[in-house]
């Protein structure tokens, strides 16, 4: 007869199943750790093998560098040692070896070839003299473009002709042409060229140091270009740049023919608009100062006058003027004194 206890799993079977799972996990973990360990050991072996190969190659280069040094092939020896130190800065003996090579290279004179003297005929300089006189005349007439072109032709014809004098004439022509381009003078009056002027002054500097005035022109031209780069992008920076330029070179202008002073005025107006767009009143009120400075250059038009007056009322509201206090003076009225009337006594 089957009882209820015969149909229930026995505790022994549960313990066997649990032990089987634990054993499987242990075997899996052992295989995993074994695989990882083998991988890392393999990587370490490859790294060690690569390091050994590199050390062997550097050792061969060092040995060859020593041979080149002994054979006085100093430049080749230097290249080998520098290669070694690039790959291993602490290579034994590398730094000392490089120092010895550099010392030997410094004290070993380079071989010079003495050219054999050649007999040359006396050159005919009559044509060069004529070109030189033409360049002098052009400098006197302030024809900077013509003088530079003439000097270029003369130097191409004979690079050794009056070298110092030609260099001086180049300096004068380039310096003055650069200043004329920046200031809009002479043939550049209708259309100044700030970039071209900066370039000419930089070329002139190759022939001699610039004077303070020319260097100032170049600096302000650079500032103008820098300030123009902020135009309509950062009005505060535009105000800073053109405010400084207009103090010293108010009529400086670029290809747009807008002077630094006019740019300063326009930047002040627009920067005032930027400030006036702020939410807080304390941040808006500084716009009055910007517009007032612009008005010192050119009076404000109707639009900006209205803006100025409206904001000025907000920032500086009128105060009620109290009526003057008039004190009331009370006048004391003296009381009337009544003198008694003495009636005469009539005796019958």
Q: Estimate what percentage of residues fall within beta strands.
A: under 5%
Q: What's the alpha carbon Rg, rounded to whole Å?
A: 49 Å
Shape: flat
Number of helical segments?
13
The percentage helix is: 55-70%
> What order do the helices and strands follow?
HHHHHHHHHHHHH
Please report the distance between the alpha carbons of the first and last residues.
179 Å
Helix/strand structural class: mainly alpha
| Major β-sheet profile | none
Kindly report the average pLDDT value: 81
Total DSSP E strands = 0
Spans of at least 5 consecutive residues whose pLDDT stays below 50 are: 1-10, 340-348
Number of domains: 3
Question: Your description of this structure?
Answer:
There is one protein chain. The protein is mostly helical. The protein folds into three domains: about 90 residues, no CATH class; about 80 residues, no CATH class; about 90 residues, no CATH class. About 65% of the residues lie in helices and about 0% in strands. It is built from 13 helices and no strands. Helix 4 packs antiparallel against helix 5, helix 4 runs parallel beside helix 6 and helix 7 runs antiparallel to helix 8. The radius of gyration is 49 Å and the shape is flat. The termini are far apart. The N terminus and C terminus are likely disordered.
């Amino acid at each position: 007869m089957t009882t209820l206890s015969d149909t229930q799993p026995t505790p022994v079977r549960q313990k066997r199943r649990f032990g089987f799972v634990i054993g499987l996990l242990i075997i899996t973990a052992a295989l995993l750790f074994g695989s990882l360990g083998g991988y890392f050991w393999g990587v370490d072996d490859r790294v060690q093998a690569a390091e050994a190969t590199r050390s062997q190659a550097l050792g061969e280069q060092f040995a060859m560098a020593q041979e080149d040094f002994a054979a006085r092939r100093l430049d080749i020896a230097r290249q080998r040692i520098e290669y070694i130190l690039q790959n291993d800065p602490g290579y034994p003996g590398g730094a000392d070896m490089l120092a010895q090579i550099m010392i030997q290279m410094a004290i070993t004179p380079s071989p010079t070839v003495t050219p054999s003297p050649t007999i040359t005929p006396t050159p005919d300089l009559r044509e060069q003299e004529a070109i030189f006189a033409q360049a002098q005349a052009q400098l006197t007439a302030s024809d900077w473009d013509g003088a530079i072109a003439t000097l270029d032709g003369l130097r191409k014809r004979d690079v050794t002709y009056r070298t110092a004098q030609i260099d001086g004439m180049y300096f004068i022509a380039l310096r003055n042409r650069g200043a004329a381009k920046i200031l809009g003078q002479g043939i550049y009056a209708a259309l100044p060229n700030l970039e071209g002027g900066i370039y000419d002054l930089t070329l002139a500097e190759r022939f001699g140091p610039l004077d303070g005035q020319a260097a100032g022109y170049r600096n302000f031209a650079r500032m103008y270009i820098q300030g123009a780069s902020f135009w309509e992008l950062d009005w505060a920076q535009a105000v800073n740049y053109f405010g400084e330029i207009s103090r010293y070179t108010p009529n400086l202008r670029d290809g747009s023919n807008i002077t630094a002073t006019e740019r300063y005025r326009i930047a002040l107006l627009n920067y005032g608009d930027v400030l006036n767009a702020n939410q807080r009143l304390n941040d808006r009120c500084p716009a009055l100062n910007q517009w007032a400075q612009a008005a010192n250059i050119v009076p404000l038009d109707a639009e900006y006058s209205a803006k100025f007056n409206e904001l000025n009322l907000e920032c500086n509201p009128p105060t009620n003027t109290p009526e003057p206090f008039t004190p009331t003076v009370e006048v004391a009225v003296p009381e009337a004194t009544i003198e008694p009337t003495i009636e005469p006594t009539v005796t019958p």
